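Table S2 (continued). Query chain:
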Amino acid sequence: AAWRAAQRGLGGEVIVAAVVDEEWQSAGTRGLLERGVRADAAIVTEPTRLAIAPAHKGFTWTEVTLRGRAAHGSRYDVGVDAIRHAGLLLADLDRLEREILVRRTHPLLGHASLHAATIAGGSGWSTYPDWCRLDIERRTVPGESPADAIREMEEAAERLRASTAADATVRHVFSQWPSDVALDAPIVTALDGALRSRGEAVAVEGLSAWTDAALLNAAGVPAICYGPGDIALAHAATEWVVEADIARAADVLERLAIAWCGAR
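Corresponding output:
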């Protein structure tokens, strides 16, 4: 799309950034921004089913370690079951989502959420487990911060300690902020116009996954997502994109570049 637009003579510059590591800590986009690369706006070509996606959720990963006391399975008077304490913590987090997080909403993204990503602990059938570790992912909506999610986990651990004398520690592992661009922002209206000029139906949706758009927005580059494919197929055993949709997206992005930059 950028090459075709350039052949027609643009009055501005189009930067094509093929970056690495967007599935982990986004070293590619972070590196571009650290080197001072900036733009008036950006399109992140994540799979949006050819919808305009001006917003997506963020996430925070926390690890909770619970310590118990190992003992023979018959010695309830000695053993402290770290896994049962983990179960109580999960029940409290379930209440947090059911009563509080469902009220933290965004018009395109639904409500904030959390889930237990992994759990491990114990050593054998007839032994009280002296440890258990939970990895919790908290999905944040615009208006929430990683600090909010970390505080919630620390408060849940404190409630558990107060009610059971459990030994629970919380460690922040990694976070990425949510992203949100106004529906009337110039890049949103320009992409809307490019779609309409090609006779495409215009849909505006939130993207459930996190993307590098959040880093660009934080650096002052209004960034939205638009591209072929369906995020519901991501990380599945079989991922695919309709070939014709790639061509449609390229045509729309060519039109956007020409309209945005103008003719030379």
